[in-house]
């Protein structure tokens, strides 16, 4: 089960920008980065040293900045899940799931 760090939101400098990062810990083996409507969320392995997070964020800085810019421009980041409509067209979702009923 994920647990929050004592300070759940911290500010990091990524590519010269101050970015608030929501941090959680879990039993996972790798660092997880997610960009969503609430900004950047990072899930760290339980034993991952917090001082190494800055290096991870700097390695992924181009991706983080591009996705945050997409979000600020009102476009859904390109990796958000898509829902298929009965006509075959897709629409982006900001929530985890959607239910559709066909007539």
Walkthrough of the structure:
With 103 residues, this protein is of the alpha+beta class. Helices cover 18% and strands 39% of the residues. The protein has a four-stranded mixed sheet with strand order 1-2-4-3, covered by helices on one side. The protein has a two-stranded antiparallel sheet with strand order 5-6. Strand 1 and strand 2 form a beta hairpin. The longest helix is centred in the middle third of the chain and has 12 residues. About 5% of the residues have low confidence.
Estimated helix fraction: 10-25%
Give the number of DSSP strands: 6
Number of helices: 2
Shape descriptor: globular
| Arrangement of strands in the largest sheet | 1-2-4-3
Order of helices and strands: EEEEHHEE
- How confident is the prediction overall: mean pLDDT? 78
Strand content: 35-45%
Unreliable residue runs: 95-99
Task: Assign the structural class, choosing from mainly alpha, mainly beta, alpha/beta, alpha+beta, or little secondary structure.
Answer: alpha+beta
Radius of gyration: 16 Å
* Largest sheet composition: 4 strands, mixed
Topology readout:
Elements: E1 3-14, E2 17-26, E3 32-36, E4 39-45, H1 53-59, H2 61-72, E5 82-84, E6 90-92
Parallel strand pairs: 2-4
Antiparallel strand pairs: 1-2, 3-4, 5-6
């Amino acid at each position: 089960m994920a647990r929050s760090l004592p300070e759940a939101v911290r500010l990091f400098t990524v590519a010269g920008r101050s970015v608030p990062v929501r941090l959680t810990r879990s039993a996972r083996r790798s660092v997880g980065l997610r960009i969503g409507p609430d900004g950047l969320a990072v899930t760290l392995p339980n034993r991952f040293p917090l001082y190494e997070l800055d290096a991870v964020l700097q390695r992924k800085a181009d991706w983080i900045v591009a996705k945050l810019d997409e979000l600020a421009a009102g476009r859904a980041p390109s990796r958000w899940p898509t829902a298929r409509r009965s006509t075959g067209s897709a629409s982006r979702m900001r929530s985890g799931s959607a239910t559709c009923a066909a007539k």
